[in-house]
Each structure stands twice: as C-alpha cells, then as structure tokens.
Automatic annotation (TrEMBL):
Pfam families: PCMT. It catalyses: [protein]-L-isoaspartate + S-adenosyl-L-methionine = [protein]-L-isoaspartate alpha-methyl ester + S-adenosyl-L-homocysteine. It comes from Terfezia boudieri ATCC MYA-4762. Monomer. Initiates the repair of damaged proteins by catalyzing methyl esterification of L-isoaspartyl and D-aspartyl residues produced by spontaneous isomerization and racemization of L-aspartyl and L-asparaginyl residues in aging peptides and proteins. InterPro entries: PCMT, SAM-dependent_MTases_sf. GO terms for biological process: methylation; response to stress. One of its GO terms (cellular component) is cytosol. Belongs to the methyltransferase superfamily. L-isoaspartyl/D-aspartyl protein methyltransferase family. It comes from the Eukaryota. Keywords: Cytoplasm, Methyltransferase, S-adenosyl-L-methionine, Transferase. It is found in: Cytoplasm, Cytosol. One of its GO terms (molecular function) is protein-L-isoaspartate (D-aspartate) O-methyltransferase activity. This is Protein-L-isoaspartate O-methyltransferase.
Amino acid sequence: MSWRCSSTTNEGLVNNLWKHGLLSTPRIREAMVAVDRAQFTREMPYEDSPQRIGYDATISAPHIHANALETLKEYIKPGSNILDIGSGSGYLCAVMAHLIAPNGKVTGIDHIPQITSLSIANLRKNPVTSEMLDSGLISIVTGDGRLGYPPNAPYDAIHVGAAAMDVHQPLLEQLKSPGRMFIPVAEGGSMYGGQAVWQIDKDEKGNVSRKRLYGVMYVPLTDAKKFED
Ligand code: SAH
C-alpha cells in the first residue's frame, strides 16, 4: 500500500496518503501540506519510505508519521504540550507544532548532539518553523529520551520515534491525566524478535490502559554512541 503514496511533490504525497485512507483528519492533512518533507531529507523526500539522515538515524516513512499523528490527534490540539522522543530530523516536531499553535509547546529530544543540531538547521530552513524555534513553541534538546524530559512535563501526548525495550516508567509519570503515548516496543524481550506500536492511555483518574496497534520496525532506543564529525 505505502509505495502507492509516493509522489513528485509534497502536496502530491499527502494527497496520496489521504486517497489511500492512511490520513483522514483534515487539520492533519493541512499541517502535513504546510511542512515540506524536503526540508528534512534531501534524498527522495516525496517517496513513501524511510530515508537515512546520518548518525544511524532514519526519518520515518510518511505513512508512519501520518498514523502516529492520527493516533494522537485528540491530544494534539491548539495549546497542547507534546514530547517527541527520538526527534531525529525534526519533521514530526514541525508538523505537531502546526497542530498545537498558536500557544502550545513541542519538545523534541534526541540523544545525538549532531542530530539535534541537524534538526534545528532543518527547522531553520523555513521562516514559519524558524519563528516557532525563536518563540519557544518548538524546543529541541539533547538527552536520553528514556528518561523523558521532566522540565517541560506533564505532556498531553508523548510520541516515541524509536523502539523501546519497555514502556519506561518516567514516560508514564510524565503523561498527563488524561494523556496518550504512542510507543514502539520490542516483543519477546529482544529488539530483533519483532516490535509493535502500543497506544498507552492515561485517563482522568490516572488509570493506565494499553492497546497493541500493529507490528513495526523502528531504530532502537539505545545508549548514545559517539560520532566524530
Ligand atoms: N521521528 C524521527 C525518527 C528518527 S530515528 C524522524 O522521523 O526523523 C530514531 C531517533 O531516535 C534517532 O535520531 C536516534 O538518535 C534517536 N534515539 C535513539 N535512542 C535514543 C535515546 N535513548 N534517547 C533519545 N533519542 C534516541
């Protein structure tokens, strides 16, 4: 299904995701049209596939981003406070920022300093996302995402863009009541035994429920490696 969504323009790509039912919410479609994927990856930006961005990281495929946004949409509204773990290229932070503007906050966290610098440079390529960095609507920080990011917690939504061995306790603690987390988790105790995306909901009373959505293959959430430039 996904390859059929590829196009030669950003709008064409988003329209194809819509046409094939991978995207169904008009405001998410608008936000994805407003953010040109070519700002975040140079090679084949309008292909519906993941691409390498360096430092062992990849920008996720557009249909994966669309599904993550659709899954979290009730919690990504104007004014929402969002944490994007393993923010990589910065693409999803940009789309989420359009969805929470004018007065929410998106914090992107990645553990490789070269990657956080790259994402800031990507966000600076467009005056709208550049202004969002200046105003603090978007913050990009370097750190271990398995610990969340306590200074800006609690979050309406937490998106995890790399596969975890478990649903880490600090992330559950930093989720609002109510709030929702999208997290790929390794199955069978090993990263190579398969992974599945889980939707974790915390209700108004703080009760937590978990729902397995579908099998996936993400880059793992790991200890940071040192990269020489
Ligand atoms: N959503 C991003 C996905 C990037 S790939 C995008 O579409 O561009 C996954 C990212 O997770 C990589 O950038 C990697 O550096 C980061 N990562 C891996 N382990 C991490 C950890 N423990 N803490 C924070 N980031 C981590």
